[in-house]
Amino acid sequence: MKVRTRSSAIIATICLVASLALTAASADESGASREAPKVVLTKVTTAANPTAGAAGPGGTVWIAERAGTVRILDHKGLGKPVLDITKETTTDGERGLLGIAFDKKFAHLYISFTNLEGTSIVDEFAVRHGKIRPETRRTVITQTQPYANHNGGDIKFGPDGYLYIALGDGGSGGDPHGNGQNLDTLLGKLLRIDPHGAKPYAIPKDNPFVGDPKAKDEIWAYGLRNPWRFSFDAGTGDLLIGDVGQSAWEEIDWAPADSEGGENYGWSQMEGNHPFRGGTEPANHVPPVHEYDRTGLGCSVTGGYVYRGKAIPELKGQYVFSDYCDGTIRALQMKNGKVTGASDLGVNGGEVISFMQGGRGELYVLDIGGSVYRIDPA
């Protein structure tokens, strides 16, 4: 799923990691942190190893469970599975059902998973009156995976209406195939496609590498190790990516809403702001807006969302994220793509594997052990 090679066993065994605070460091934090907003985690349900979630029709949120089921959370609670692909996937390594997304009109549901051979797949289902139509299922895109880790797997629709797909570098450790900087593979990339423009999909004409014979047209950004979770700011359209590090640094990358794509986030020449194993910083390297080292219990960044809800006004505009091994919920204050402060929100979500954003902008925290929390005002 999302943790580095040394931590794969953590997910495989779903062990409990102690909830101690992470010592964070960022080369870009120059301003003093404001007083942290006062929040609590309200447990709203328990799922079976939840990995991802998405706002659904009618004020619902849909939760993906790693073994291959999707369930709907509404005012009545968590319902029975509305989709079951458990016979098509496996939880070996970092595999499973890894991402779900709706298009803007809730007319289609997309799922991102690894099949029994480990291949990354994104499938589409038509949705009518809030219900999946299984007979409409079709495969949008596939990508073979050389190893069982660093699959990425997150999927989101951007403000432009296109589907973005995060893929890790293919796995093992240290990017042995050099996929991060190789534009002739989809691995180690953030992709941008139009699933409605053609079958199986169309390439947006303004993708940055369209027409380059040495690059894949689907690529939007590259130099990523394992972009386990990314999101778009619902207020500005900016892109934020939590990219899991190798051995020393976790990073959060940022791109403005008006980006034309093509960003190189540096892997595997760079890990955060630091050369990796004697690497040379690419001339076009886009450094992270935030990084932290492993002097604490942090080992695997879990990217989140910029808060745009109404329940916690003091948190509005701040980027909320965590770490799988640490569990502390944190927030970054940002201005014009620069971090101006960081806060520990004083709550711990356990083994935080993902966040999800409800239809009204409120945020939920997913603990791989099963707990689903909503971030509420204290």
How does this structure look, described?
By secondary structure, the chain is mainly β. The chain contains 1 helix and 27 strands. Strands 2, 3, 4, 5 and 6 form a 5-stranded antiparallel β-sheet that branches. The two termini are 32 Å apart.
Largest sheet: 5 strands, antiparallel
Inertia-based shape: globular
Percent of sequence in beta strands: 35-45%
The whole-angstrom Rg is 19 Å
Give the overall average pLDDT: 92
N to C succession of SSEs: HEEEEEEEEEEEEEEEEEEEEEEEEEEE
Structure summary, number of beta strands: 27
Instruction: Report the total helices.
Output: 1
Helix % is under 10%
For the termini, the CA-CA separation is: 32 Å
- Secondary structure class reads mainly beta
Short description:
The chain has 378 residues and is mainly β. 2% of the residues lie in helices and 40% in strands. The strands form seven sheets. Strands 2, 3, 4, 5 and 6 form a five-stranded antiparallel sheet that branches. Strands 1-27-26-25 form a four-stranded antiparallel sheet, with no helix packed on it. Strands 7-8-9-10 form a four-stranded antiparallel sheet, with no helix packed on it.
